[in-house]
Design brief:
By secondary structure, the chain is of the alpha+beta class. Helix content is 23%, strand content 20%. It is built from 9 helices and 14 strands. The strands form 4 sheets. Strands 9-12-11-10-13 form a 5-stranded mixed beta sheet. The chain is globular and about 60 Å long.
């Protein structure tokens, strides 16, 4: 039998001691700044990094026995990309609905579930449901989690900000996890998630979202952080039973949550999703597998870009502008199918990892 691919990272802890962690799946769940030395700034909740006990402040000392002393961030990025390529990826990625920029056009493309079908629909995700409007007095074994993975600007003639939303279904014993990623505009999330949730909860909304205000209009700094907090609060509200089964069904349809047969054995399509806050790519084009954060698409071919247009921000819609914050200065371990000659753009400040 073939041995499972592994990635060995040696970290220097804050007290100077060394600790070795062995990764077997992607995404790893690590974020660090685009500078040397590589210091862990964030560990994604539910990731393998969290499972292995990686902590904030640890410095990456070596990657598969290659010492990082004296290397540049570009060199380390290439080593990390190459060393992690064989790891198994456990994320299913939905194709970007690039033509569905408006709320109306996206709604027309999404699956709808009749009220009579809500119970069997949620059962495939492990939920026990009394009816479309009530969970009943049933202790739920499954849980849902949502968070923002990154964002990029894409479009045919007008660029729009698309946020990568990660979803996770966690089984009752925590041993079963399904992950997927879907891209949505802020206008989509506001109209098809935020407004329905706020309307249904009514006066109870502030109880669940008191510390998690939704993103402001205008793409102001902090938009990604606000969306992150709001999605985390939504996950908790769903788990508490505050959100009706019917609305949870609508949310799962909006996020294109995969059925069990869609997840098994599938990995992310090569080079389709790579998020960067690079403001420019030298040469005017995107290398194979790389999506410039601001890309004007001349022809619709999901995962490929046409002319790179990285020198301007354009309105996300009439009220939501540009790339919001995009200046968090973090670099997640970006694991895509870049050619070995491709270099990390000098102006890339934040690049969430993906699976090829």
């Amino acid at each position: 039998a073939n041995m499972q691919a592994q990635l060995e990272l040696v970290f220097a802890m804050e007290d100077g001691r060394m600790v070795t962690k062995v990764f077997t799946t992607r995404p790893l769940g690590l974020q660090f700044r685009t500078e040397m030395p590589i210091v862990i700034m964030r560990v994604q909740e539910g990731s393998q990094a969290e499972e292995l006990g990686v902590e904030l402040g640890w410095k990456v000392h070596s990657i598969d026995e290659k010492l990082l002393d004296g290397m540049t961030i570009d060199q380390v990025y290439q080593i990390l990309r190459k060393s992690s390529a064989p790891l198994r990826c456990n994320v299913l990625v939905r194709h970007l609905q690039l033509q569905a920029t408006s709320v109306e056009s996206l709604s027309a493309k999404l699956k709808s579930v009749a009220e009579t079908e809500v119970v069997p629909f949620l059962e495939q995700f492990g939920f026990a449901v009394q009816n479309a409007r009530s969970w009943g007095n049933i202790i739920q074994k499954s849980r849902l989690r949502f968070w923002i993975h990154g964002h990029r600007e894409m479009g045919f003639h007008t660029l729009h900000t698309w946020y990568a939303i990660m979803g996770e279904v966690i089984g009752g014993d925590d041993s079963s996890r399904r992950h997927w990623m879907v891209e949505r505009r802020l206008a989509h999330v506001r109209a098809l998630m935020h407004h329905p949730v706020k309307s249904e909860l009514g006066n109870d909304y502030n109880h669940y979202f008191r510390e998690a205000h939704f993103a402001r209009r205008g793409g102001l700094p902090g938009t990604t952080s606000r969306m992150q907090s709001w999605l985390a609060a939504l996950s908790k509200a769903i788990h508490s039973g505050a959100v009706s089964p019917a609305l949870v069904t609508d949310i799962l349809c909006f996020l294109e949550a995969p059925a069990r047969h869609e997840v098994a054995g599938q990995t992310i399509p090569g080079g389709e999703l790579l998020y960067s806050n690079a403001s420019k790519i030298e040469g005017g084009g995107a290398p194979t597998g790389f999506q410039c954060v601001k890309t004007r698409v001349e022809s619709y071919d999901c995962g490929k870009s046409g002319e790179a247009a990285c020198n301007q921000d354009v309105p996300d819609d009439e009220t939501d502008q540009g790339t919001d914050d995009g200046r968090e200065g973090l670099l997640e371990d970006c694991l895509d199918e870049l050619d070995s000659t491709d270099e990390l753009p000098a102006q890339a400040e934040s690049m969430p990892e993906i699976c090829p």
